[in-house]
User: Fold this.
Amino acid sequence: MKLKGVSVAAAIVSIAIFACACTVSSASEEDLTQYVNVKIGSGGHGHVFVGASVPFGAVQLGPTSIPQSWDWCSGYHDSDQTVIGFSHTHLSGTGIGDLFDVTLMPVIGDVKYSRGVEDDQTSGLWSYADRSKEIARPGYYSVPLTRYGITAEMTSTCRVGLSRYTFPASDEAAVVIDLQNGGCWDSAYDTGIEIIDNNTVSGYRFSRGWAKNQKIFFYAVFDKPFESLEVIPVKEDEFGSVKFGRACFKTAADDQVMVKVAISAVSEENAKMNMEAELPGWDFEATEKAAVAAWNKELSKAKVSGCDDDTKTVFYSALFHTMIVPSVFSDVNGEYRGADGLVHPSVTHTTYTTFSLWDTYRAQMPLMTVLHPDREADMVNTMISINEEQGRLPVWHLMANETNCMVGNPGIIAVADAVVKDIPGIDQEKAWKALKNTAMCDDRGQDLRKRYGYIPSDLFNQSVAYDMEYAIADGAMFSAAEHLGKSEDAAYFRERSHSYRNYMDKETLQARGRLSDGSWRTPFSPYHSAHEVTDYCEGTAWQYTWLVPQDYDGLVEFYGSKDLFIERLDSLFIADSHLEGDNVSSDITGLIGQYVHGNEPSHHIIYFYTMAGQPWKTADLVRRVYSEFYQNNTEGLAGNEDAGQMSAWYVLSSLGFYEMEPASTRFWFGAPAFEKADITVPGGVLRIKAEGLDGSNKYIQEVTLNGKKLDRGYVDYSEIMAGGDLVFKMGDSPAVWY
Assistant:
């Protein structure tokens, strides 16, 4: 049943605001958004979103540029000043581009309705942006468009973008609604614009891209009547028509035109309802203030001190970047478009999308379990619904579409992690059903793995990567089954989690492709990379040899002893950093030896030292990563932000611990970056102190929890969530306290 009317919208507005954390913060609280540099990672290969949004909001409203190549996956790159318009959806940190739906461009005079090319400013409606006057901060973005003399400003709620354009005097001012141009691999196949009245239009944009069939509906209202609205078709075929709209105005100097656009994946009617619920009025400053308050509410869950402003900026910018996606996907009445393509009625949880799980199961999702357990429950329940709608848990889910991007079964790891941690609000038996169903699927090489015990490299591309990620997922299945008392399942998945051992070559001491007849793939070099066409995924044998967070004991056994394990681990960080091949993966960045911090398969490796009883090596390497790969500038990330994973690694690690094992409650100690950090948790506040921390006193000497010494190298999730006092006593000498 669809709900209608302003009265219904008013009744559910509090739900909508709560879902996107739009609670106004106390005026006495510190404005932590001042420490957020949203442009960290907007250069290099960071691919971060730059624009206006609220935490986990459905809308990401910001500029979209002309280029559609790899470094413009978010629509923005610091090296480029072109703007084709301001789109209401964007990705952040991904390695593939899509979205950029419902793009608005304020213009003066006649324009060509196309994206255009940079060497001809009359080729489209695009303009250069004056970056010297650009303002980008949480919840707000503005920039002057030099071609037209227009300043564009924008802010947002969860599901509504609010734009304000300041025009020069003109009889030919207009706001163009661009439904053709998306991002990178995206292509619109059918669009619609309907004039509701002289202030209002609604419509839709259906597109194919990374999300193979994406549907977005919108409802747009201007704060003043347009003189006319022209609908300009630019493409028509058997699939539908693609259109632009042009809302025309007459403006005096410095006249402002505001437009608010609500989106929905369900219908134009629901988009209208979203607007009525979240943004019925026209107070731009109040809307921005609410967005800032929403960001402060979430950022204040981790209050750090005892560091310089640069470090504080790196921390809060990282925390900010962990909360762009996953994004809300359901409407204010709870309706959403499912993975089966159908519209589903309201459910008890908020539905989310943009699950970059191969990346985020490692740190971003574990961080969610600490800072946002309520949202984590909603996200996991969304994944369980996806299992029911498409027959398996998500791999890389985008706007109701399974992209099947990346290797393994990462959805299993995220769901199993929530099960093992007893996240409230999740039906554990229902979760287990989804877990086991997915683990037993025969797709994506699992049939070969069941037949041979591993995935043969002559029968399946990226075989080592797929199998080793499946083994990690099976390790998570073991943990979940054991937690739920399913001993038979636990034994089965524990054994299956050892499939990686088939690739461990005693001669080279590396993980190496194995053929269906049992022989090793030759020739072999651990330095060789060929993007998407080798036995590995975005890596080499050097990194994949250590992709075994689920079986530390098995790795030690493979090398023969803990000492030999450590010796071989040392070799990873001192190996030559060169790479071989004609098609080296551009994702292999941020190297220390052959450790690759710019891509996810390496992210847990440093913490093996703490597990092995040499925590000072973890501390040294983690601090080196802090200083070399997290910096307060546009190229301040070592690789793609990857939907929050790169930043989540920093957030967790800088607090002093990191969850490296799949579906685990153990957070291993490393190197606290702050003298003090207060983390808001359900049990109150976890007060983290690093006593004596300075440039020399960088090693943990002792750890106490609520005054009691810990004789282990980790803190348990339950202890974190209970709150209390976690104290690191720091010194200048390597030490082992456990």
User: Anything to note?
Assistant: The chain has a mean pLDDT of 95.
